[in-house]
Amino acid sequence: MLYSLLTSLVDTFSFLNVFKYLTVRTGLAVFTSMFVVFLIGTPFINFFSARKILDPIREDGPSDHIIKKIGTPTMGGALILLGLFSGILLWGDLSSYFVWFLIFIVGGYGLLGAYDDYRKIKYKNSSGVSFKFKFTVQILIALMGIIFLTYFSDHSELEYLYFPFFKNLIINLGWFFIPFSVFIIVGSSNAVNLTDGLDGLATVPVILVASCFAFISYVTGNIVFSDYLQIPYIEGIGEASVFCGSIIGACIGFLWFNAPPAKIFMGDTGSLALGGSLGAVGIITKHEIVLAITGGLFVLEAVSVIIQVGSYKLTGKRVFKMAPIHHHFEKKGWPESTVVIRFWIISIILAMIGLATLKFR
Fold first, then answer.
1. d(Cα 68, Cα 326) in Å, to the nearest integer?
2. H or E segment at 360?
3. Ramachandran bin of 267, using left for φ above 0, alpha for ψ from -120 to 50, beta for the remaining angles
4. CA–CA distances in Å: residue 182 to residues 148, 177, 246, 349
5. Cα(99)–Cα(260) distance, rounded to whole angstroms?
6. C or N terminus of the chain, fewer CB within 10 Å?
7. Among 223, 220, 280, 289, which residue's Cα sits nearest to residue 247?
8. Distance between CA atoms of 278 and 106, rounded to whole angstroms?
9. What is the pLDDT of residue 61?
10. Phi and psi dihedrals of 73, rounded to 5?
């Protein structure tokens, strides 16, 4: 909104032309969303604490969680979303269908997560909505978003799957790209949701992945840089960098309150929304495989759960002491801070590998 207002005055005040630059607006989105979260964070937490909007701790989780984390407010994802929407609505180009696609995905998954958190709080258990209901709604939201995207965009470009390290290895998915895209969004959403189990564990990797895709969105939407890097050029996709900037700023602000020991948890409100939005950005930039690399920590967490469940159902034995895998290391005696920081290091390494794929082709 502010972007549209300022650019409409360019003919009168030429210095306002600076707001047309994506780099400027991405930076402003980072600072705006971060400032909003910093500004309202403390009163937000105090309000939730007073209203007893508290996180129900898993009874089968590590025993020290019941002692350390009980009484901590949840639904902090609402705080993240307030910051995120402030950044994108002020500095994003709202005439872009890419922006509205991303807003729809993050908003839809945020509402689903909020309903799940509400059920947990109301019934004072960690179950929330049923897996079948959550999974079905996730698919429907993703499907509606993809249909919207294909209606307003040249979906022929979306049909291609590009492989990093190979400049000529491209697969035309045809209409299969619709279920493929739904799989990416739903899978990414649930992977981040599974990772969000320790103080700050999911927040920093989300910041790292969003930072990578802020850069990827920018170069993909720039015909000169995309040609130099030999990656697909997608007109208008640079606006996704402003969206990623909003994620970065909101999560940095949230990390101030979520760093160990956390004063508030993001809950499903935040994890489902952030995960879904990262999947959506990966799809529209045509870097789905790079998303799996940069977000490899999320993939690892999700795979650990799949292996644990599959092994138990087939053999009656568990591979890990507890899944997701971060709880496995807690059960082995690693302090929570050690698990979190080492997982952050892994995420940093994977982010660097993911960015390196842009050059090595």
1. 17
2. none
3. left
4. 13, 8, 23, 27
5. 33
6. N
7. 280
8. 9
9. 55
10. -65, 155
The structure tokens listed for 221 are 């939407």
Q: What is the pLDDT of residues 273-310, one digit of tens each?
A: 999 999 999 999 999 999 999 999 999 999 999 999 99
What is the secondary structure of 306-341 as a DSSP string? Answer: HHHHHHHHHHS--SSSSSSHHHHHHHTT--HHHHHH
Residue 189 CB-density burial (10 A; 0-12 exposed, 13-18 middle, 19+ buried): buried
Token pair listed for 17: 């032309």
* Contact predicate 19/4, CB 8 Å: no
Q: Are 250 and 80 in contact (CB under 8 A)?
A: yes
In whole numbers, what is the pLDDT of the chain averaged over residues? 89
Do the Cβ atoms of 200 and 258 come closer than 8 Å?
A: yes
Q: Please name the residue that has the structure tokens 């705080």.
A: 79
Q: Are the beta carbons of 158 and 175 closer than 8 angstroms?
A: no
DSSP bridge pairs for 12: none
- Per DSSP, the three-state class of 73 is strand
Amino acid at 309: V
Torsion angle, CA of 305/310/316/321, rounded to 10 degrees?
A: -20
> Which three-class secondary structure state does DSSP give residue 162?
strand
Per-domain boundaries in the chain: 2-356
Give the C-alpha separation, 206 to 251, whole Å. 8
Grade residue 122 by pLDDT with cuts at 50, 70 and 90: confident
Q: Which of 134, 133, 107 lies closest to 270, judged by CA?
A: 107
Nearest to 200 by CA among 337, 298, 346, 328: 337
